Amino acid sequence: MANDRIADHGLLADGRSAALVDRDGSVNWWSPERFDAPSVFARLLDPDGGHWSLRPHGRFEVHRAYLPGTLVLRTVFRTGQGEVAVTDGLALEPGARGHEIGRRSPRALVRVVEGISGAVPMTMSYCPRFEYARRDAYLVPENGAPRVTAGPTTLTLTGTLPLVAATDQVALDFEVHAGQREVFTLGYAPTYGTAPAVPDPHHPDPLAETVRGWRSWADEHPFHGDHADLVQRNALVLQGLTYQPSGAVVAAATTSLPEELGGDRNYDYRYAWLRDFCLTLRALWVAACPTEAGRLFDWVASAVGRVGASRVPVMFGVEGERDLDEQTMETLRGYADSAPVRVGNQAWRQRQLDVPGEVLDAAWRLRDHLTPMPDPIRDLLRDLADQAAADWRKPDAGMWEARDAERHYLSSKVYCWVALDRAVRFGGRLGDADEVARWARQRDEVREVILRQGWNAGVGAFTGAFGSDRLDASVLVMPIIGFLPAADPRMRATIDLIDQRLGHGGLVRRWDGDPATFHLCSFWLVQCLALAGERDRAARLFETVASRANDLGLFAEQLDAHTGEQLGNFPQAFSHIGLILAAWQLSTASTGATYSEEGFP
Prior knowledge:
The chain is of the alpha+beta class. It has helices spanning 208-219, 228-240, 277-286, 290-304, 355-365, 375-391, 410-426, 433-453, 477-480, 489-502, 519-531, 535-546, 573-589, and strands at 9-13, 18-22, 26-30, 51-56, 61-66, 73-79, 82-90, 108-127, 139-140, 147-150, 153-159, 170-177, 181-190, 242-243, 248-249, 272-273, 315-316, 327-328, 342-343, 455-456, 461-462, 503-504, 507-508, 517-518, 558-559, 566-567.
């Protein structure tokens, strides 16, 4: 089978890992140990990368949806012989509710087949490939439950039907009649550790606890503004991208899905970026998830630690690991032959000057929860303010992580201003009078330089870098974080020019020459228009962008505006964050409010 479209997939999650299952009932991605661990299914990146397919024989039509308030997916297949449903979920621990879900997940993938009408011939193909398809392994039958071990990973497949293992796969044909139910569970265990208890396939409802767990979380997080259903669904996706033991939110569930078919901008996004941190926190806060926001800040403080004179890492593993060196997986051809497939991300070595501003802005949003402020957090924030004051004149790799050269990116300078501005707002809670005065002087100098060197009179807009005539959608953050009002004539001219030159059918590219539109930038434009007082126009644009999600409401990183194809890693936290914040901005705009110093609630 060739690679399925990225948008054909649905997300399953259990608080530690994610699996992707396509419309045809094939699980094409799963790294069961944790988000950034080696895969056991990677068909998404290579037809021979491993999969677990469960579908009807012959032709069929598909209707699928998540069970309300969950990340449990029900797919109904309609065939000439009848209808059958397959319900898929990564199991949650029995009894876990609310903020406890996912902390100790069983690491089991459960698939329930139910006959709805007629008699439907079904076929199952289970073909694991370990460590990004670098390892094949022998399947060993054990009391009708084929087990396979490859190095540190053991998988055991159980079911209500007899399962016969060939050398490296299980193939099964069976028929499902109306009212009949068959269940299959695939459990992961560390080869040299204790195997977690997996759901019993003979249980009357093996996914019942998983459904109750997700719904208990959803019930605790109501949103009462515009597009409430969308906000709650997108908040659930962010929860699905959260590594529950630490609270870290990964940028995406996948690695190496390309920004452009045939291109080489294929990166591993299964890590937590500090660049995303402030936006993630805001989105969780807006979606009524203050506990998750607080846990996320605690994770950042722990991961970053004491800064001193060292550069702040821009990203971490989900448990705070810093060394994320990049390597190429030669065993996988890449999605639609878009090589290379990368594991690790060399961006962890880059200088990105926006990071201190992201963390300080997040701390400011949580200031009421930082009273009294713990000494380690105070030291961290003070060091970050000092680093912004010392480094803001330097070039960096920028928000889009350029790998060719460092430049004086405008958005990076703006976030240096944010770092100093928030430090000044904290005042005596962060530093003594001399330190606060020094931060204030540096803040004012950064602002003056941005306004003087960031504005390009020839272009008639703020451009992406000092001395550049190239538009860049990253400057849309300026009114969103309160650097300039959206109605400021220079800012308004910039917003309109970005819409005209980088827009395509209401969607926005990051820069001229970007091969696809970028969902987050499109939602930033919605926010800017709402802040500028054009709520109706912003609302129409919001509807346009939100409609580009797949049938399950999931976004990749980008969208080819010509073909409508989702591109980039999937699902992408940035995109879902953008939707939540844009919906909140529209809700605020409907009351006539604009940006205030307090910003988000």
